Amino acid sequence: MSAFLQEIEGLYAQAMEELAAAQTTASSEAWYAKYLSRKGELTAQLRGLGQLPADEKPAAGKRINEIKNGLSNALQARQATIAQAEMEETLSAEGIDVTLPGRLQQVGKLHPTTVAMNQIIDIFTQMGFEVFDSPEVETDADNFELLNFPPGHPAREMQDSFYTATPDVILRTHTSPGQLHAMRKYAPDPLRVILPGKCYRNEDVTARSEMMFYQVEGLAVGRNITFSDLKGVLFNYANQMYGEGRQIRFRKSYFPFTEPSVEVDVDCILCGGEGCRVCKYSGWLEILGAGMVHPVVLRNGGYDPAVYSGFAFGMGIERQAMLKYSIDDIRYFYDNDARFLARVG
Ligand code: PHE
């Protein structure tokens, strides 16, 4: 064997040995640079081919090509082995244990106000009331004046309003203006509607009052609607909402848009009327305001009060939820504390 070929065989053996020792992608790349790249040792040897005597050239050229192919194939095989080993190492380092239990996913729930609202809507729709949508932004006329609050009437102060940039346009302080919208739509036909929705009062936020809260209004107008109808409907409501066997009590009250007006209590759902801290030892819990629709309001809605009569009631939805689920602070409803939100429903 010529000295030239001997040298090349030596280089080949050395390269194969080094390749077998390469443990990482990086070292296999360094190996490629050292032997096979344009600046590599094998390429350098190829250049020496030109100096060989003519009769040695073909055999030497052939051998160099074989060696080059051999090294390329060996590199490919080695790199595949290294890649496999590296992947296994990464996987075991990341430590995926497929036998571990999955993480519990938090599932969303309906908001407690929505839960209570849906219950209230269900109870009244079963009694034949239709849900009627009415706007949250109202004129002063519909929120107050046409509901028989004269300008400067002290009852306005009980419902301090949020004003808008437009004069006489306010955020509704109660759902009662919806009574007028419903009557205008139905008059002179009889109607039976409930109006759920948001209301706003410019008040200090306390355990008992929020600036934004929900109410449900109820309204029935027809030719023979009496106070007994109101009593029956509210008695049925109290029994479905707070449990069979509930008692209700009517106390005389005042609202400009109803006459007579009442506030309605249910016997304390905690102590059953015995007297406890929740009912302040009275045995009763106030749930809503109600009354017979005032003749002025009937007329403003398009009904002749000599022919038609009606009843109306209005309740705070959060208040119903607070009584039913023993929640002692209305601020929880809009604090967005997930522990509270998960409690009801
Ligand atoms: N609108 C009254 C309030 O917000 C409640 C009410 C409605 C009273 C209908 C009587 C009749 O306090």
Description:
- With 345 residues, the protein is an alpha+beta fold.
- The chain has two domains: 3-94; 112-344, Bira Bifunctional Protein, Domain 2 (BirA Bifunctional Protein, domain 2, 2-Layer Sandwich), CATH 3.30.930.
- The protein is 42% helix and 19% strand.
- The protein has helices spanning 3-21, 25-35, 41-48, 57-94, 112-126, 140-143, 154-157, 177-186, 227-242, 295-301, 317-325, 338-341, and strands spanning 130-131, 137-139, 169-171, 191-200, 212-222, 248-255, 258-267, 284-293, 309-316.
- The strands form two sheets. The protein has a seven-stranded mixed beta sheet, with helices on both faces. It has a two-stranded antiparallel sheet with strand order 2-3.
- Strand 6 and strand 7 (258-267) form a beta hairpin.
- Helix 1 packs parallel to helix 4 (57-94).
- The radius of gyration is 43 Å and the shape is rod-shaped.
- The protein starts with a helix and ends with a helix.
- Bound molecules: phenylalanine.
- Phenylalanine binds at residues 174, 176, 217, 255, 258, 289-291, 312-314.
Integer average pLDDT: 93
Bound molecules: phenylalanine
Strand order of the largest sheet: 1-4-5-9-8-7-6
CATH architectural designation of the largest domain: 2-Layer Sandwich
Sheet having the most strands:
7 strands, mixed
Strand content: 15-25%
User: Do you know the CATH topology of the largest domain?
Assistant: BirA Bifunctional Protein, domain 2
Q: Please compute the radius of gyration using only Cα atoms.
A: 43 Å
Topology:
Layout: H1 3-21, H2 25-35, H3 41-48, H4 57-94, H5 112-126, E1 130-131, E2 137-139, H6 140-143, H7 154-157, E3 169-171, H8 177-186, E4 191-200, E5 212-222, H9 227-242, E6 248-255, E7 258-267, E8 284-293, H10 295-301, E9 309-316, H11 317-325, H12 338-341
Parallel strand pairs: 1-4
Antiparallel strand pairs: 2-3, 4-5, 5-9, 6-7, 7-8, 8-9
The structure holds phenylalanine.
Phenylalanine binds next to strand 8 and strand 9.
